[in-house]
Amino acid sequence: MLTPQVQAAQALKSIARSEHIKSYLQQSEELYPLVLQAAKRFITGESRQDGITVAKEMIRKGYAVSLEYIGENIKGAGECHEAKEEFLQLIEEMGAASINQTVSLDLSHIGLLVDTEITYTHLVELAEKAKSYNITVMVSMEESSKTDDILDIYKRAVRHYSNVGISIQAHLYRSVQDLHELMNYPGKIRIVKGAYQEPCNVAIPRSKELNDRYLQLVEQVMEANHPLSIATHDESLIQQIEQRHCLARSHVEVEMLYGIRPDLLKNAKDNGYTARMYLTYGQEWYLYLCHRLAEYPENLYLALTDMIGPPATDKYGSY
């Protein structure tokens, strides 16, 4: 029997994919600002300047950062082009501000559902611009049905641009073999547990088995001395990885999402490890918020508090 927490997480993941609910929220003059207030715990804001501002503050505090303009599953060629242009402008402004860090993106934001060749062209254009500013472009992973296309495009791009990296979802059974092959390429590898709801024959559910698989993948990359981002908010996993003396290595970083377990990321930074904060901005925050709540349903209580309470006076106090 499923626990209430698991049931809540599954419901939130279903809601995340409901275009009807999303459209209703976006058109509601009453609901939209309330839910946006809750979303701002996890996003920097809706504008590029919001992202840049928070990035500068976090860098001042000693963190590395990764910036993303939120969006995915775009089906129009014009919209994909606009998203690519926004990423180019983001990279330009980061470079001008000497934020020589990381930009993250979903390939379905820049064309994956339109045409794989367009997507590849857009990714290469972004990688070229990023290279001139010593910025890394990290490709995120999406639903398992997109994995083959994402990996194919990444492998083509990274042959020419070593500043392009890739994410791997530990919960997918295929990831062990995928990771073995990816270590033949120079790009950084980010290991996540996986946020998407997948069939049981495709992915491992949240469990000790999944935690063991995550550790296995981390060790696989560590032994190869390959650039690695350990992206998790699981305190137990982080402690186990730290006990294995993995975090102090120069090619390893800990990466966490803005607004989730700031205490853990601050502790990693204070211990001298490279601590990277994943910052997002944009108006397409609905799906992102639902995923953050689904990962830890107790965040629903915080969301309700954020919607009815006054804004925090010190947005960065936890860091």
Number of helices: 13
Unreliable stretches covering 5 or more consecutive residues:
none
**Strands of the largest sheet, in order across it?**
1-2-3-4-5-6-7-8
What overall geometry do the principal axes of the alpha carbons give? globular
Instruction: Classify the beta-strand content into a percent band.
Output: 5-15%
Distance between the termini: 38 Å
Radius of gyration: 19 Å
Report the mean per-residue pLDDT as an integer. 88
Write the element-wise H/E pattern from the N-terminal end onward.
Answer: HHHHEHEHEHEHEHEHEHEHH
CATH fold-level assignment of the largest domain: TIM Barrel
The biggest sheet amounts to:
8 strands, parallel, barrel
